[in-house]
Amino acid sequence: MTRDDSIEQIRQRLSLVDLVQKHVPLRKSGRHFVGLCPFHSEKTPSFHVNPDKQLYYCFGCGVGGDLFRFYMQTEHVGFQDALKELAKRAGVTLPQRPSEARRESLHEAMRGVLEAARSFFRAQLASAAGKSAFDYLRARGLTPETIERFELGWAPEGWENLRDHFRSRKVDLSLAETCGLLRSGRSGYFDLFRARVIFPIRDGQGRLAGFGGRVTQASTAAAPPEGRTEPKYFNSPETELFHKGDLLYGLHHAREHILKASQATLVEGYMDVIALHQAGLPTAVAPLGTALTENHVRGLKRVAATVKVLFDADDAGTRAALRALPLLLAEGVLARAVRLPRGEDPDSLIRRLGPSEMHRRFEADADLFDVALDTLIGGSTPATPQKQKQAADAILTILRAASEPVVQDAYLKKAAAGLGIREQSLWRSLTTGRVEPPLHAPPAAARPDPRDLRSLRARHRTEYEEDALQAAFDDPLLWEVVVQTRSLFSDPWHLKLIKVVSEQAGAAEERTPDALMAHHGDDLDPARLTRLQFRSGPAPDALPEARLRDALENLHDLAKKDKLVYVRNLIRKASRSGSSAEMKDLYRRKKEVETSRLPWPIAEGLPEWLRSEPENTINHERS
Fold first, then answer.
1. CB 35 within 8 A of CB 500
2. Total H helices, total E strands in the chain
3. Mean pLDDT across 236-262
4. Pairing relationship of beta strands 334-337 and 306-309 according to DSSP bridges
5. Are 56 and 64 in contact (CB under 8 A)?
6. DSSP letter at 366?
């Protein structure tokens, strides 16, 4: 039995309705079950479960998916963990390739070695050799209870302590090297962590993945040779279990608190995380000495709707916060900022002024975009067009990252006001990359807003594209037609979906939402994929082929209108140059556009130039 067969068996044996009702009560409503959404607070039920398709969708917050996705979202785990747990519940044995079995065995062995190292480091901190390290932690304001809770340890000075400990317990030294604890040299294996306070690093499920180490003022015996510098912090190297771009320090401690508050706090260092937890702010997590990544943000998005950024109040901390903002906006996460006095970090502020001051600043948080805007424009409208453009370019990078149109529009208004630039000018620059001069024209409200027409036509285009995709899901054989007419589509997510389907080999059953979610996970945005199944399209009782034909013809008509605008603009420009040959060719092309039709079932009859240009019709209307 293949993995796909096992997934299908799980779907057949488990009921999504039963799974959901363990979290919220449902009532029957027509073909669906309806209840209060378990993912956001609401008084009127907007959460729908389709028992036939084994899909759910919330019309309030937009989450959706299948039973695997529901388990992932409620238990905050990845697909593989959801698959294993639901397979147990369904009594389905998952097939394992020999390579997968070997890898799982390796991971289990590595975690055993990491646990042995953790116990060693903990024992060393409690010994006489670790007294100076323990005193250092106490001087940093940590209580014995906090030191115990975060499992802090001590790597003794010297190059062979952990190695000899492993040898005495017959631990495979080559496996310890694979775990990032030892390294082999000319004279054999030696310790990587020396004379450092040790911070065990666990993944979101609490499994040990690696370690971080920090030097103290007292740790001098492990100083590097002359001419080299010893980093303050040193982390495990990348291993099968330790990936800095995926892990967040403190997440397994903070998870339940983040879930309860639907809010996470992002800080820079290990000591900041620990100090905030001890001060009664237990939602703090930190990257592992590296810049924030998309995977970090996606991991936070699973458990929090809001992220408060609390970086050091220096130039480096400001730059880190500005780099984090586009990543947070791209994932639709609400980004807030907690401001600190210049030169302070969370740990130093708590030690100097106490937890109450930090709590006060948490309550006085601000929108991170407002902070970024204030930073980029220097607190006042830029004095020259050159400075305006420089600030606008940086702000546009942030605005382009925003995945929510409403958020993007609200921030654009703020940016235009702060820069002293017309809102329409800044909006156009999102696509043209060009910022117009400062405000000298009448207010935008006094003239028709060209975005109204763009918004209306874009909305129609999106609806027609959704109609076509919905018809193809109802009859997967129609995907061949959608793939061959993909040039009529413009929505990036729709194009991505069509591309995935076009590359999906096999039977029509593999082009269903269930199969696509199982194979492609978060890459296809399961909530949006599910929404297509729940939306009410035109003539729902019509045959899928007829619905697809209507949708494609509507898209073709919109494309014709855009092409006509484009060609007419070219004709006006050519008329000024007086080139009769060029004018003749343009009128021929105009005639081709006006008489073009969409052949059924595929669009091979369209002229090549009509299918390939232009890509951005909005700019053509304004040229």
1. no
2. 28, 16
3. 92
4. parallel
5. yes
6. E
Transcribe 470-499 into DSSP letters.
Answer: HHHHHSGGGHHHHHHTGGG---HHHHHHHH
What are residue 153's phi and psi, to 5 degrees?
-140, -170
Q: Which of 45-49, 161-165, 419-423, 474-478 has the lowest mean pLDDT?
A: 474-478
Nearest-angstrom CA–CA distance, 500 and 477: 15
Residue 226 scores a pLDDT above 70:
no
Write the single-letter amino acid at 284: A
Residue 588 burial (CB count, 10 A): 10
**Residue 237 to residue 201: CA distance in whole angstroms:** 12
Q: What are phi and psi of 163, to 5 degrees?
A: -60, -45
CB atoms within 10 A of CB 453: 12
Rounded to whole angstroms, the Cα distance separating 277 from 285 reads: 9
pLDDT tens column, 318-358: 888 889 999 999 988 999 999 999 888 899 999 999 999 99
Write down the pLDDT at residue 211.
97
Residues sharing a CB contact under 8 Å with residue 104, sequence separation 6 or more, in sequence order: 96
Q: Answer for the pair 367, 413: CB distance below 8 angstroms, yes or no.
A: no
C-alpha closest to that of 2 among 93, 104, 102, 98: 93
Distances (CA, A) of 305 to 256, 293, 335, 405, 493: 14, 17, 9, 17, 22
Instruction: Calculate helix-pair angle for 492-502, 450-474, nearest 10 degrees.
Output: 20
Rounded to whole angstroms, the Cα distance separating 563 from 34 reads 45
Say which residues have a Cβ less than 8 Å from residue 455's Cβ, sequence separation at least 6. Answer: none
| Neighbouring C-alpha atoms within 13 Å toward the C-beta of 44 | 3
User: How far, in Å, CA of 536 to CA of 27, rounded?
Assistant: 21
Q: CB atoms < 10 A from the CB of 343, how many? A: 10
486-533 residue pLDDT tens: 888 988 889 888 888 887 655 555 666 667 766 665 567 777 878 777
